[in-house]
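U., I forgot to send this yesterday:
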Amino acid sequence: MTYSQELLMQLLDKERLTLNKAALKLGVSQAFLSKVKTGEKAFSEALALSLCDWLMLDEPVVLLRLRASKATSPRERSIWQKIERRLQDVD
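Result:
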């Protein structure tokens, strides 16, 4: 599951929204959210940040996880995981 999918599921569960209502609130099409739900598309950084307020998430962590979920190789994923651990150690 991609991080965009996780964010979408959190939004739908927390706000008890349908894809159509979530699309209206986010200002995107239902077709786009359907593609996010299936993993075909990902949220932009701007859209992910707008979800931070609704879901009460830490913005730097959201951006990091969003970018990390787009990693294409095991090495990239490993590096993003190291960055996340270091970020958590700083907090």
